[in-house]
Amino acid sequence: MSADETVNFPRNEGTPGAGQGVKIGERASEGLDFVMDVPVEVSVEIGRKKMRIAEILRIGSGSVLELDKVAGEPLDIYVNNRIVARGEAVVVGDHYGVRLTEILIADDSRPRTGEHR
């Protein structure tokens, strides 16, 4: 496919601009409009802990698991199991939230480290 070819996607009446051809090589903000409605999973990790099976079998309701992060240390934010940011926990009304404090730009030429397991 050359840079001058146009790709046509099926028309979706609920999406503005859907079904219009996208020129390969256009600016990313314009050329990626057709994926803006694709759902992704966002998760926040407060910490991790390695345990032996015997330890897991001894835990029960009310047990406290000490995690590897220190209180106040930034939380890791993942999109589709890939770390993308760090932030701090906040309370928004009756819900928890995360205030982003650092955006991580990953270089695809490097091996992915810190991926959520």
Tell me about this structure.
The chain is mainly β. The protein folds into two domains: 1-38, no CATH class; 40-117, Roll (Surface presentation of antigens (SPOA)). 9% of the residues lie in helices and 28% in strands. The protein is built from two helices and six strands, in the order ββαβαβββ. It has helices at residues 28-31, 53-58; strands at residues 6-7, 22-23, 42-45, 75-79, 82-92, 95-103. The strands form two sheets. A four-stranded antiparallel beta sheet has the order 3-4-5-6, with no helix packed on it. A two-stranded antiparallel ribbon has the order 1-2.
Helix/strand/pairing category:
mainly beta
CATH-level-2 architecture of the largest domain:
Roll
Shape: elongated
The helix tally amounts to 2
The quaternary structure here is single chain
Helicity, in percent?
under 10%
Q: What sequence of helices (H) and strands (E) makes up the elements? A: EEHEHEEE
Identify the strand order in the major beta sheet: 3-4-5-6
Taking all Cα atoms into account, the compactness measure Rg is: 21 Å
Unreliable sequence segments? 15-24
Number of strands: 6
Ends apart, CA distance between termini: 36 Å
Strand proportion: 25-35%
Q: Which topology of the largest domain does CATH recognise? A: Surface presentation of antigens (SPOA)
The largest β sheet comes out as: 4 strands, antiparallel
CATH superfamily of the largest domain, called what? SpoA-like
Q: Indicate how many domains the architecture comprises.
A: 2
